[in-house]
Amino acid sequence: MVNRYRSGRLIAAIALAAATAITGAVTVTTGADAADYPNPGRVTGATGVHDPSVVRAPNGTYLLVHTGNNLAIKTSTDRIAWRNAGVVWPGGAPWTTAYTAGSANLWAPDVSYHNGQYYLYYSASTFGSQRSAIFLATSTTGAAGTWTHRGLVVESSSSVNYNTIDPHLTVDAGGQWWLSFGSFWSGIKLIRIDSATGLRSTSDTAVRALATRPSSASGAVEAPVIHRRGGWYYLFTSFDFCCRGASSTYRVMVGRSASVTGPYVDRNGTALTAGGGTELLAGHGSVHGPGHQAVLPDTDSDVLFYHYYTDSGAARLGINLLGWDAAGWPYVY
């Protein structure tokens, strides 16, 4: 399966990793190097996707949930060919409409599998609004119409300095559950989750800051994903602007920490709470605004899922593999 995702730029990526291993040098990819980024790997079928999240089921099937009316579901048996598989809420989700102004469009799901069932965190909001909420649903199969509404996890309004969209569940090395979230305003936050319920902890209600862009006029950082690997927690985020078709400027950034709660720093040692972030993937050629990433540890590699826009402005599913250099930093190939 790895070969199907390789491009001509894989040779350069391997050379980079080898050179780093031999010399100990650290090479930083910047926006100026965007022409060297690989194109998305080959995908077929139902590839119209926005804000993808993916989990591999116990039987090896891939389940993808993404932004859409009542939350859209897709499946694949090989990570290449994708088919539509209905929606999470065929009858609608009336508990969300107070946040969506009556719309059925639900955003930025995060799907994972724990304790014999699927957990789905998702957002309800309207564009540009701080009146937002994150809800939880569970299912034993992940199929359309089998999901149970478990309740409100966290919400935001003008009374706080953050925005509760773009959730991502992380389980730390000690088995504790955490939910990261955030978009614009004061950036990316983290709260503790009770693993028995999947809802917010009642004993630890702290809202911890993970990343922000204080020197950016827009404060454009969102879509957090925390990936644990090799003693590090890697925080992937999306900088700049989504949802503008071929004019989108989304790009994938990364920092890391020895603790799930931070502090996170980029490759140059700049704190993510001070605007830091090492660029991992940016627009190039006919790939515009790649972002709202998900990271899946799979049997052949760690895999990066994201959406991007074509020249026509259509949102499409992007998939690439993640490599790791000698210094423990990811690169895309």
From TrEMBL:
<dbReference type="Pfam" id="PF04616">
    <property type="entry name" value="Glyco_hydro_43"/>
</dbReference>
<keyword id="KW-0732">Signal</keyword>
<dbReference type="InterPro" id="IPR006710">
    <property type="entry name" value="Glyco_hydro_43"/>
</dbReference>
<keyword id="KW-0326">Glycosidase</keyword>
<keyword id="KW-0378">Hydrolase</keyword>
<dbReference type="InterPro" id="IPR050727">
    <property type="entry name" value="GH43_arabinanases"/>
</dbReference>
<comment type="similarity">
    <text>Belongs to the glycosyl hydrolase 43 family.</text>
</comment>
<protein>
    <submittedName>
        <fullName>Arabinan endo-1,5-alpha-L-arabinosidase</fullName>
    </submittedName>
</protein>
<feature type="signal peptide">
    <location>
        <begin position="1"/>
        <end position="34"/>
    </location>
</feature>
<dbReference type="InterPro" id="IPR016840">
    <property type="entry name" value="Glyco_hydro_43_endo_a_Ara-ase"/>
</dbReference>
<comment type="pathway">
    <text>Glycan metabolism; L-arabinan degradation.</text>
</comment>
<dbReference type="InterPro" id="IPR023296">
    <property type="entry name" value="Glyco_hydro_beta-prop_sf"/>
</dbReference>
